[in-house]
Specification:
The protein is mainly alpha-helical. Helices cover 54% and strands 0% of the residues.
Length: 68
């Protein structure tokens, strides 16, 4: 799947809110940098962490539960 399609699916998961999506990607990238395992089939050494985070969100593996 192309990255444009992944981004479109990830945006659907956030009701097309780019601000929320960017915050979710940023937070997940930090978690991946700190040793969290990817929730999708990906190689941290090859794939970009932002792409992995985007794939996880697009697949519905990561959801926004609460903003306070």
């Amino acid at each position: 799947m192309r990255i444009e399609e992944i981004i479109a699916k990830a945006l659907e998961q956030t009701s097309n809110d780019r601000y929320i999506l960017s915050n979710m990607v940023f937070t997940r990238v930090k978690q991946l940098e700190n040793g969290a395992q990817p929730l999708v089939s990906a190689n941290i050494k090859v794939d970009k962490l932002a792409d992995i985070a985007m794939m996880e969100i697009a697949a519905g593996k990561i959801k926004l539960e609460k903003m306070s």
